[in-house]
Design a protein that fits this description.
Pfam family, one: ADH_zinc_N_2
GO molecular function: oxidoreductase activity; zinc ion binding
Structural class: alpha/beta
Protein name: Alcohol dehydrogenase
Number of strands: 15
Distance between the termini: 12 Å
Number of helices: 10
Bound molecules: NADP nicotinamide-adenine-dinucleotide phosphate
Low-confidence stretches: none
Radius of gyration: 20 Å
Helix content: 25-40%
Order of helices and strands: EEEHHEEEEHHEHEHEEHEHEHEHE
InterPro entries: ADH-like_N (IPR013154), Chloroplast_QOR (IPR052733), ER (IPR020843), GroES-like_sf (IPR011032), NAD(P)-bd_dom_sf (IPR036291), Quin_OxRdtase/zeta-crystal_CS (IPR002364)
CATH class of the largest domain: Alpha Beta
Organism: Candidatus Chloroploca asiatica
Mean pLDDT: 97
CATH superfamily of the largest domain: Medium-chain alcohol dehydrogenases, catalytic domain
Number of domains: 2
Length: 323
C-alpha cells in the first residue's frame, strides 16, 4: 500500500510517499481502507518532534511510527477474530491518536473500540473532519465545562477545527453562544448558529460588561487573568489550546488560581472515545451539527496541506482524500 511517511523529524518536506506493507489486524483490530483523513495540530507537533520532551514517547532520535494521521474515515476491509461490532464493508470513522496514528495511508489497523459507524448523511471526507476535533469540543464543553441550557458560553477561537464544532455543540446544549474570531471568519461563525459574534480585531471581549458562565479557550492568546475578568463569579474557564503560556498556566496553576479567584480554571486533554463519537454521530445524522471543511488535498499533497494549515488560513478542517 502507499503511505505518506516521515523517517526523521522536520518540516513537511521530510514526508515522502512510500510503498509499505499493508498492516494485519490483531484479534481486537479492524483493518480499514482509508478514504479520507484530516489534519490536526498533533500531526504538526509530531512531525517536528516538538515539544522535545514528547520524543520520549514518539522516538528519541527518529520517529517510532513513520505514518501520522489521527482522523480517518473508510471502509472495513477485514476484522480480527474477537471483533463483533463491525464487519467487512461497514463504513466507519475514528480518532487513532490514542493507538499509534497511521491514517495518512491507504490502509490502517485500529482497535474496534476507537471506531464508530460513519453517519450515513456524511461523505467520507466530511466524516474524516469529525473525530478528534468534535470529541475534543464535546469533552471540553460537557465533561470539563459542565455546560447547561441557558448558560452564557463564549468560545475564543471559534473558526478552526475544534472551534466550529464547539459553537454548534454549545448551541445544541441550549447555551447562548458568543463566538470570537477574526474578521474573515465572522460570517462563518454566524452561519454555525452563534448568537453573538465578536471580531477580536475590532473589540476586546474582556473589556466589556458582559459576563459568561463558561469560556472555552480554543485558540486563546490572552493571559488567564483576562479570561477571569469576563467570567461571572463561580464561572468556568476551560483551556483547550492556543498560546503555550496560557495552556501551561492553566495546567500547573489552575487549581490554586481557582481558589484565589472564585472562578474555575481548568485545562482539557481530550481522549478518543467511542461513546463520545457516537453521541456526536447522532447530532451529525440529524443535521444539528455539520463538519466545516476548508479545503481538500490528495494524500500525496500532505506537505502542502500541512503548510496551508500552519499558515492559519484554515476555516474548519483541512482534509486529505485517498480513494
Ligand atoms: N487539549 C486538547 O486535547 C486539544 C485537542 C485538539 C486540539 N487542541 C489545540 O486546540 C487548538 C485549536 O486546534 P484546532 O485544530 O481547532 O486549530 P485550527 O483548526 O488550526 O484553528 C485555525 C484557526 O485558528 C486561528 N488562528 C489564528 N492565528 C493562527 C495561527 N498563527 N496559526 C493557526 N491558526 C491561527 C484562525 O482563526 P481566526 O483567524 O478566526 O483567529 C484559524 O481559522 C490548538 O492549539 C490545538 O493544539 C487541543
Amino acid at each position: 500500500m502507499q503511505a505518506m511517511c516521515y523517517r526523521r523529524y522536520g518540516e513537511p518536506e521530510v514526508l515522502r510517499l512510500e510503498t509499505v506493507a499493508k498492516p494485519t489486524p490483531g484479534h481486537d483490530d479492524v483493518l480499514i481502507q482509508v478514504h479520507a483523513t484530516s489534519l490536526n495540530a498533533a500531526d504538526a507537533y509530531l512531525l517536528k518532534g516538538e515539544p522535545a520532551i514528547a520524543r520520549l514517547f514518539s522516538g528519541l532520535r527518529r520517529p517510532k511510527h513513520p505514518i501520522l494521521g489521527a482522523d480517518i474515515a473508510g471502509t472495513v476491509a477485514a476484522v480480527g477474530s474477537r471483533v463483533t461490532q463491525f464487519q467487512p464493508g461497514d463504513a466507519v470513522y475514528g480518532d487513532l491518536s490514542g493507538c499509534g496514528f497511521g491514517g495518512f495511508a491507504e490502509y490502517v489497523c485500529a482497535p474496534a473500540g476507537v471506531l464508530a459507524l460513519k453517519p450515513t448523511r456524511l461523505s467520507f471526507a466530511q466524516a474524516a473532519a469529525v473525530p478528534l476535533a468534535a470529541v475534543t469540543a464535546l469533552q471540553a464543553l460537557r465533561a470539563r465545562g459542565e455546560i447547561a441550557a441557558g448558560q452564557q458560553v463564549l468560545i475564543h477561537g471559534a473558526s478552526g477545527g475544534v472551534g466550529t464544532f464547539a459553537v454548534q455543540l454549545a448551541r445544541s446544549f441550549g447555551a447562548t453562544v458568543t463566538a470570537v474570531c477574526s474578521t474573515k471568519n465572522v460570517e462563518l461563525a454566524r452561519s454555525l448558529g452563534a448568537d453573538h459574534v465578536i471580531d477580536y480585531t475590532q473589540e476586546d471581549f474582556t473589556q466589556s460588561d458582559q459576563r459568561y458562565d463558561l469560556i472555552l479557550v480554543v485558540n486563546g492568546n490572552r493571559p488567564l487573568a483576562a479570561y477571569r475578568r469576563a467570567l461571572r463569579s463561580g464561572g468556568r474557564c476551560v483551556v483547550v489550546g492556543g498560546a503555550i503560556r496560557t495552556i501551561l498556566t492553566a495546567t500547573l496553576l489552575g487549581p490554586s488560581l481557582s481558589l484565589t479567584w472564585g472562578v474555575s480554571i481548568r485545562n482539557v486533554l481530550a481522549q478518543p472515545s467511542q461513546q463520545d463519537l457516537t453521541f456526536v454521530g447522532g447530532l451529525l445524522e440529524s443535521g444539528e451539527v455539520v463538519p466545516v471543511i476548508d479545503r481538500c488535498f490528495p494524500l500525496r499533497e500532505l506537505p502542502e496541506a500541512l503548510r496551508y494549515r500552519a499558515a492559519g488560513r484554515g476555516r474548519g478542517k483541512v482534509v486529505l482524500t485517498i480513494f
